[in-house]
Design a protein that fits this description.
The structure holds 2 protein chains of 2 kinds. Chain A is built from 13 helices and 2 strands, in the order H-H-H-H-H-H-H-H-H-H-E-E-H-H-H. By secondary structure, chain A is mainly alpha-helical. Chain A has a two-stranded antiparallel ribbon with strand order 1-2. The longest helix of chain A has 29 residues. The mean pLDDT of chain A is 93. Chain B has a domain of 65 residues: Phenylacetic acid degradation B (Ubiquitin-like (UB roll)), CATH 3.10.20.520. By secondary structure, chain B is of the alpha+beta class. Chain B has a 3-stranded antiparallel β-sheet, with helices on one face. The N and C termini of chain B lie far apart (61 Å). Classes of the chains: A mainly alpha, B alpha+beta. The structure holds fe (ii) ion (2 copies). The site of one fe (ii) ion has 5 residues of chain A, from helix 4 and helix 7.
């Protein structure tokens, strides 16, 4: 029975038929998706922190409005993804709990600090840029709710990357100090950004299974190469450099060669020893604790209202 | 380790697989009062079109669900009208029955206009 179910399942996946929450699926597929989607959701939420840091100090009203809109989008992305994960049978509170206790990870990139205004541009251009490359193939991932959430996310992401690039472009045409600030931000965000694609393929134990289940469509290294090829060209428009002496176009491969990635740093940050791990997690835990009275008050209010007027759910419109 | 507890998103019916409408309000780990109920959101993208499922969210009541749906799902004029319904009120067909439910329609080709061969001389039909 089990094998038969598994064959039918794999057959659907092979034929690009989406898996929906109530369909039979291997337990491992469910677990893998819960892990991946919830960690993706956590990344969107924690990702608001480094940028939120600059909202009050944005240099103009225009930039402030843009940054607020972007950060709000990221909150939305987190919510789409949490909902998608919930269809697999895990509750929202369980996911929060996993984040707060450190059981679930989020993208390590958000454990780096945003030291100057230029960092906001570098995040949009490089971090959202890398995220987009990861997310586009996920629009065709085999699990229906995840794929649908990603379609929504991808539609919103392209403005994120463009506003970041535009911000850096403005700095790159400014005073010497502004140019320097721009280059400095690129220097600090470049390596962490290319680490966002995850370990090399030979060190990525889940990739093969995830590819077979079509949760993943491209390997980490394929996506990383694509990103580097893209950015190596775009940086020329900024008249800036990427901090990699080995970065060079390889005519034979038709790709850019690049230097050695410091995986030791990557694993250190994943393991909790990045510059801001503690700060980020503390901020989330504090937000959750500080919101407790709001959650309780809203529940109490709804209960009271329902008991006063049990026949109505609260809205006026009828279908 | 099995995490099956709730199956919503509009796709879930009353299958015993995991739906837990009986204990969902009492067994949440969040301590104070548990999670806010889950709602499904349907959005009419423009006047004249059907409402379409957009996703879900948590809210204490319908008014809050609509407000949140507005912020989460229509930040870029994606809709002109929002419906919300608490997820537990949605009943769904069971995917295991899909064969029995939908297959018989396959061999009733005579329900489609292309089944009928008419001479070319017949116009406007
Ligand atoms: Fe995002
Ligand atoms: Fe983004």
């Amino acid at each position: 029975m089990e094998t038969n179910q598994e064959t039918i399942f794999q057959d659907k996946v092979d034929h690009e038929i989406k898996i929906e929450p109530k369909d039979w699926m291997p337990e491992k597929y469910r677990q893998t998706l819960i892990r991946q989607i919830s960690q993706h959701a956590h990344s969107e939420i924690v990702g608001m922190l480094p940028e939120g840091n600059w909202i009050t100090r944005a240099p103009s009203l225009r930039r402030k409005a843009i940054l607020i809109a972007k950060v709000q989008d990221e909150a939305g992305h987190g919510l789409y993804l949490y909902s998608a994960a919930e269809t697999l049978g895990i509750s929202r509170d369980e996911m929060y709990d996993q984040l707060h206790t450190g059981k679930a990870k989020y993208s390590s990139i958000f454990n780096y600090p945003t030291l100057t205004w230029a960092d906001i541009g570098a995040i949009g251009w490089l971090v959202d840029g890398a995220a987009i490359l990861n997310q586009i193939p996920l629009c065709r991932t085999s699990f229906g709710p995840y794929a649908r959430a990603m379609v929504r996310v991808c539609k919103e992401e392209s403005f994120h990357q463009r506003q970041g690039f535009e911000l850096l472009l403005t700095l790159s045409q400014g005073t010497d100090a502004q140019k320097q600030m721009c280059q400095d931000a690129i220097n600090r965000w470049w390596w962490p950004s290319i680490m966002m694609f995850g370990p090399n393929d030979d060190a990525s134990p889940h990739t093969a299974q995830s590819m077979k289940w079509k949760i993943k469509r491209f390997t980490n290294d394929e996506l990383r190469q694509k990103f580097i090829d893209m950015i190596a060209e775009q940086v020329k428009v900024l008249n800036m450099r990427l901090p990699d002496a080995d970065l060079k176009w390889n005519e034979e491969r038709k790709h850019y060669d690049f230097g050695k990635i410091n995986w030791e740093e990557f694993w250190q940050v994943v393991g909790g020893n990045g510059p801001c791990n503690k700060q980020r997690l503390d901020a989330r835990k504090k937000a959750w604790a500080d919101g407790a009275w709001v959650r309780e008050a809203a529940t109490a209010y709804a209960e009271k209202k329902a008991s006063l007027n049990p026949s109505k759910g609260g809205t006026s419109e009828t279908v | 380790m099995i995490l099956l507890r709730k199956f919503y998103y509009g796709d879930y019916g009353e299958s015993k697989l995991g739906s837990s409408s009986d204990n969902e309000t009492s067994s949440s780990p969040s301590g104070a009062g548990g999670e806010w109920p889950l709602w499904e959101v349907f959005i009419r993208s423009k006047q004249g079109l059907d409402h379409k499922h957009a996703g879900s969210l948590h809210a204490v009541d319908a008014a809050m669900a609509i407000e949140n749906a507005r912020d989460v799902y229509t930040r870029r004029m994606e809709g002109v009208s929002i419906w919300v319904v608490e997820s537990k009120h949605i009943h769904a067909s069971n995917p295991d029955d899909a064969g029995a439910l939908y297959d018989p329609a396959n061999d009733k080709a005579y329900r489609h206009p292309t089944f009928y061969n008419l001479p070319d001389a017949v116009k406007h039909m």
